[in-house]
Amino acid sequence: METEIFRQWNTWRTFTLKTLQRVEESQVDKIPERFNNNIRWNAGHIVVIHDRLTAQMLGEAPSYPEGYDTYFDKGTSPDDWDDQVPSLNEIMAELEGQVEKLRGSIQGRLGEEPKGNVFNMPTIGDLAMFAVGHEAMHLSTIQSLMRMTK
Question: In this protein, which residues make up the domain named DinB-like (predicted)?
């Protein structure tokens, strides 16, 4: 089962990165009507939540770059950004290396009970699969934003 979970992590991250590579500069920060956030926020949010979820599973502190939670955590908004917000390219660089880094943290431990369990899931593996679903959901939002901002 471990191989399948990590394969899903890699597959969805590849989909996310390939999609982000197709984003035009003019689309990055547009927020269409009925949307709360933009493409850059959704990409950064994936970084923050994937990292935080993994850290919580292990009872550790997150390792995403300083300030990322200020810009991309649940409940934040691009309306509150300053000129220090990471660029889409910086976020993509974080996304590129993140899966392997986090995989190293939980490999061989998927059957263990998580130390911090926000979602009441019985194992680290269950939470790892939740992370896949979360990324897929935000990838879908990014794809919708791309269509709406063409």
Answer: 16-142
